[in-house]
């Protein structure tokens, strides 16, 4: 198979694509892959590091308000469509997969115009503007949340889950749980100021609880709080770090997750059957993280603590209410396992094979 994948800007569009490519290579080792992104997006660093060929187009996001910049965006869109067509005529893909982000717009649009089989993957519960635009033009639509299905034509939409779920589930298959109940608190790669402040307030109480807390502050914040952290460095119930490098292994060993509710995070957490306390970021377009989390709250796999309600007391209470209540924990664990999609890449692969043939 020859496949072009496009998507970028943020990790939520890139890591699911890379997880799917990893599975695809396992199934079809001779697959030829080309990734199309932008020079400014995270994909310009992440994709080459993964050993995947990257080509770029010059495109920028559409302003949601009236702006002269949108004239420039329109010009760049059609220029990128032309550039993408040239790339495709040279590479000759059997299928083009878009995973979201504004770069996917002109690339998938170009493929559709060239009559190349196309599929998009929508990772969030509320679709982004790019995938809403592409929905009528592509052959298939894969979604990571059931809530997203309502926004797309039902006859070509399938629930697949997020490919990161299968990658995490496979990697964690042989990992044993910590004996002491453990919660992982993580505010994302850069950390979250509100979460850090709540954690500092909660430290005296967390230090004496029956469960262990593994906390990552984010590298940019760690030095600011180091004096507070150092007071507890000998406490066996606390493991405080700037960053978590082995997140998959750590989550697999733990019993509970507390943090933001990005689509990839939720896919990983549910693939492992972990209950979760989600604190949706208020700084995300269309309040996507709240919508993401709500689907799993409705299934009994998670609870939400609103960002404005997060403090030391609410943080400790949310964790304790789950980890120190065996019956509730087990109910949430079962719900999370049921909601998880540990075969997400296989499901997406089946759709790709269907249209490429």
From TrEMBL:
Annotated positions binding UDP-N-acetyl-alpha-D-glucosamine: 10-12, 124, 189, 244, 289
Gene3D superfamilies (alphabetical): Glycogen Phosphorylase B
Record field: catalytic activity: Mur2Ac(oyl-L-Ala-gamma-D-Glu-L-Lys-D-Ala-D-Ala)-di-trans,octa-cis-undecaprenyl diphosphate + UDP-N-acetyl-alpha-D-glucosamine = beta-D-GlcNAc-(1->4)-Mur2Ac(oyl-L-Ala-gamma-D-Glu-L-Lys-D-Ala-D-Ala)-di-trans,octa-cis-undecaprenyl diphosphate + UDP + H(+)
GO BP terms in the entry: carbohydrate metabolic process; cell division; cell wall organization; peptidoglycan biosynthetic process; regulation of cell shape
One Pfam family, short name: Glyco_transf_28
Keywords: Cell cycle, Cell division, Cell membrane, Cell shape, Cell wall biogenesis/degradation, Glycosyltransferase, Membrane, Peptidoglycan synthesis, Transferase
Cited CDD domains: GT28_MurG
EC number(s) stated in the UniProt entry for this protein: 2.4.1.227
Subcellular location: Cell membrane
GO cellular component, one term: plasma membrane
Bilayer topology annotation: Peripheral membrane protein
Pathway named in the protein's UniProt entry: Cell wall biogenesis; peptidoglycan biosynthesis
Domain Glycosyltransferase family 28 N-terminal: 3-142
Cited InterPro entries: GlcNAc_MurG, Glyco_trans_28_C, GlycoTrans_28_N
First-level EC class: transferase
GO molecular function, one term: undecaprenyldiphospho-muramoylpentapeptide beta-N-acetylglucosaminyltransferase activity
Protein role: Cell wall formation. Catalyzes the transfer of a GlcNAc subunit on undecaprenyl-pyrophosphoryl-MurNAc-pentapeptide (lipid intermediate I) to form undecaprenyl-pyrophosphoryl-MurNAc-(pentapeptide)GlcNAc (lipid intermediate II).
PANTHER family found in the cross-reference section: GLYCOSYLTRANSFERASE (PTHR21015:SF22), UDP-N-ACETYLGLUCOSAMINE--N-ACETYLMURAMYL-(PENTAPEPTIDE) PYROPHOSPHORYL-UNDECAPRENOL N-ACETYLGLUCOSAMINE TRANSFERASE 1 (PTHR21015)
The family this protein is said to belong to: Belongs to the glycosyltransferase 28 family. MurG subfamily.
Protein name: UDP-N-acetylglucosamine--N-acetylmuramyl-(pentapeptide) pyrophosphoryl-undecaprenol N-acetylglucosamine transferase
Lineage, uppermost ranks: Bacteria, Bacillati, Bacillota, Bacilli, Lactobacillales
